[in-house]
Amino acid sequence: MKGDVLKAKDYRTDLQPVWCTGCGDFGVLKGLTQALADLQVDPDRLAVISGIGCSSRLPGYVRAYSFNSIHGRALPIATGLKTARPELTTIVVGGDGDGFSIGLGHIPHAVRRNTPLTYVVMDNGIYGLTKGQASPTTDLEAKRSRGLAGADDEPLNPVLLVLSSGGGFVARTHAGNLPHMRAIFREAIQYPGFAFVHVLAGCVTYQPRGYADQLLERSYELPADYDPARPEQAAAAARDHRFALGVLYRRPVTERSEARGGDGHAEWMSPDDVARRDLPGE
Q1: Whole-prediction pTM value?
Q2: What confidence score (pLDDT) does residue 2 get?
Q3: How many whole angstroms separate alpha carbon 134 and alpha carbon 127?
């Protein structure tokens, strides 16, 4: 399809998602394919890697070099791929259980190596694939009220964890806010280093009814005058009991980096630059 303007649908395979009706992962898939179309990433130079879990099924639905790997090991596998094939735009996807339980130890090393990967974690605060156990990010009150295992364990703060590890690009979005998610994915893919995106995504099967709406009500978009270059401000936003949506921290990039390969999207563009582009849309 060289020479053609790719649309979001051109990044989808013929496989139909098997997620539950209403699952937030549908929104993530749509937002990701829209962002890829915005950037006109060549599917032949795209890799999508995941671990195990509901959200980790996503690579099968994206037209790319896709690999649904083993539990918690998506980051080292993607790091090896990106090192061997630096020309590929490499995206890692997974859930809160896969990323922050068995896979937790790989995150700070991926951050410190600053391998140019985009790591998208769909956080629904539950183990959905294995029938509703508490995950590392399950709210403490929810665990106690529902009698889930680990009632005395405080949940992890994914954004604060990546910030404290030295992450250069740390953002949060919500699976129910498609325009916002699309824009965040665009910025993350373009960042010439390790980029982390925390996606709030409700589970309609094992979370209480209206859980996704509660997450959205508890969220707010960062104001226009927010400066993502200030790490202390990012840490304060990450500690807020409400969920700040947007790019919380972006280490300034002063030089063009070719680390993301030859797809023409190595340099970072500001949100204003992106907004001025003639985007192909759907």
Answers
A1: 0.88
A2: 58
A3: 6
